[in-house]
Structures are given as C-alpha cells and as structure tokens.
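Researcher: Next entry in the queue.
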Amino acid sequence: MLKNHPKGLIPAALANMGERFGFYTMMAILTLFLMSKFNLSGTEAGLMYSIFYGAIYILALVGGIIADRLRNYKGTIIVGLIVMSVGYVLLSMPALITTKYIALAALLVIAFGNGLFKGNLQALVGQMYDNDQYRDKRDSGFQIFYMFINIGAMFAPFLAAWVRNTFVKMQGYAYNADLPGLCHQYLDGKMSEEVIGGRFSELATTVSNGVMPVDLSTFATSYLDAFNTGFHYAFLTAVVAMGISLIIFLSTKRHLPVPRIKEKAATHISPEELQKNAKEIRQRIYALLAVFGVVIFFWFSFHQNGLTLTYFAKDYTLLGGKIFSSVEVFQSINPILVVFLTPIVIGIFGRLAKRGKEPSTPKKIAIGMGIAASAFVLMAVGSIGLPLLSDVTAQGGMPDEMRVTPWLLFFTYFILTVAELFISPLGLSFVSKVAPPHMQGLMQGGWLTATAVGNFSLILGAMMYENISISITWTVFVAVCVASMLLMLAMLKWLEKVAK
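Model: Structure for this entry, 500 residues:
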C-alpha cells in the first residue's frame, strides 16, 4: 500500500496525529462538558460547538495566507502545534474556566492554532505529489495520510472518558450520563416531585455505591463538581498528544518539501499565452469554489456526530456493557473504521484503476454524498416512534426499556465513515491537484473554509433536535446530502475536464 509513495508521507501523517487526537477529544466531550459545566441547553451548547468548529476551519484560511506570504510552511505548522497546546492547557484548569465566555476564548485559542497547522500540513503533503514520479498516486496518498492521522483519534475518546470516569470514581461516585442534567434540574427547582422521588433518587443511590444520599442538594452539587473537574483533566490528554506530534514533526521535517519561489522565465511570453494561462487559473479557481460549495452540506451533516448524534447517544440510546459503556465511546467508531476501511477502499479503487474503471475524484465525492444520505435514512427509520426531547426531559430521561440499541449508531457511523473516505481525503487530493501552484496554502484554506461554513450551520441541527420529531430531523440531513450529490453530478463533466 505504501509502495511508490514519497518517504515524507508517513512522517507528515504521524505529526498530524496529535491534532486528530485533540479533535476527537473535543468531538467526544465538548458538548457534554459545556452542558454539564454551565447548565446549557443542547441548542446553547450547539451554538458554542458550531462557533468553535467553524473557527477551526475558517482560521485555516488565515493560516494558509500567512504561510503563503512568509513561504514558511514548516515554521507556521510548529507555531500552530504550540498554540493548540496552550489552548488545551487553559481548558484543563477548573479555576480558570468559570464562565462559558472564558471557555469559548480558550476554544478560540485552539482554533487559531489549528488554523496555522492544519491546512499548511495538507499543502505540504500535496506538494509531495507534484513530482511526476508520484503524480498518479495522489488520491491514494491522501487516503493513506488520512488513515494514519486517525490512529491517534482512535484512542482519544476512550482515554478522555477514562480520565473523567476515574476522577469521578475517586470522589466516590460512578459515571451516569443522565445525572448532570438531572442535578441541574434539581438545583434549579425545575424537577417534579415525581422525578425527585423516583428516577433522580434512584440514580443518585446507584452512583453512590447503593447508599441513598442524605441531602440531595449536597449530592447534586458534589456530583457536578466531580463530573466537571474530570472533564477538565481529560483535556490534558490532548496536551500530551500535541507534544508527541511536535517532537515527531521537528525530528522528521527534513523529509517534507520546502516550497520554492519559481524563477521568472527567461523567454518572452506573448500576451496571448498570458491570457490563456490566466483563463486556466480562473477555471481552476471556479472549479474549486464549486466543490467547496457542495461539501459545505456534507460537513453540516457529517459533523453532527459530535452534536446531535452525541445527544442521541445520551438521550435515546441504551448504554452499558463492555463496548458501549459511555456516550464518548461512540466517537471512537469513526477513526477506528477510517484505519480499518482505508486499505479496503484503496484496494477497490486500485482494482478498478487496473480495469480502467476507477471513478474520477469528483465522481467519488458525489458517490460519497449519496452514501452519507443513506446513513441518515437509517437513523430516520430507527428513530420512528421516539418521543420529543421535551417529553423525555420532563419525565427525567428515557427508561432503559424504551431506548434504542447502540448498534443503530454504530452502523450509522460505519456508513458515514465510508462516505467520509470518499469525500474528505479525496477532496484534499482534488484541491492539491487543481489549485494553482502559488495558491496551494490559500486553496487548502479555502477547502477548510467551506468546512467552516458547514460547521457554523451545525447549530441548526441542535435546534431541530430539541424542537421537532427526531425522525424528521434526520430526514432533513437525508435531503441535504441527496441535493448535494445531484449538484455534484450535474457539474461532473466540467470538473473532470478542469482536473485533467
């Protein structure tokens, strides 16, 4: 699989593992932390989540501009890793993060560091494949890169949940996903007497080693403090991962390309030739902008995995056992499947290529949109008959016998991961192939900006989740993905022509 690829590919991917580790730590616990720490509703937490994830990607455009201007991709990447580490350190300090606005400021520090790092490393990977020796390996190269960067992400949710649960246990309690919300309801005086004497008292007894707390107010305050402090310490795991990535990058950066400013050609270029070159550049930029517009809707749907799909795991899914023991565990499914499925997808495309039937990169992206739509079809069907969230909250949570099997989410993540492998690494490949040489960092930033627009829209998913039928919420994402697929197919011939 690694044969005939540049030797800098794997070092670049390994250096990116820390960023992915931090990303999936946040994907697993951010909204849960915000709701528990600051007593936010799902929509309020979703707004902060959307701002943060949008900022991560839109600041990549700023990072691309900085690196293109300085012609110092490697230095910009190093600074990005350091700034991200600072942001995670800030989030790990319970005494500092006392309001949601301070938390948002720390999140934006992480987002700025990510902007300096992410797009510029991807641009360096793309430059490796500008060499004629590797040009025809570009798609598979980005798929391999994407697979390896997700190795760190495989462990992040497990480790974050373990740190949080261990601290909770050290305070004499057990983990329960429903209790933070119930504790806030009780302390705010919004809980009915029926729930106080029923589900809340029952869960409080269960997590307190079978002993009914003498004072439920004291218990609620103590449990929230233990739960939230455990979350803070979980962010430290990302700091360690960032440090490892920094060491890897510093020790292997010599294998990565150094962008060179092209010398002016000695021969005279006619006005006609200049006009032709300018026209080609415009067509390339228009094609990239068109693809950016389409993938906005994929990321709007896909990144619900850290928002509404996480809420669904907490509110409607049966947890327990060794596999699906906590909400955060579901966020490990995606990176594990990326690592497992990437060689299979590469192998399939390789066999198709030998037979002359491999789809073009734009066609692969269109297929990926269709696959994503099918994931939300599964969720829509599996959610038929579930009550509104407001009804679930009023009764103190869903009884276990009414919750859905965790395998519904597992197979949804499985399908979404296949869609991701058709879109994300291949989109990066398309950008590096089509972008003019002097705009590599900027155009990689443009791809990430499109992701940002999709992420800023994530709040719409949280609003639907809290206010309309769960099944209809997933149906909206089906419609969005299908419309994007059809639009991509309509532009297919033009995009294939530009990419040649």
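Model: The two ends are 24 Å apart (CA to CA).
Researcher: Noted, moving on.
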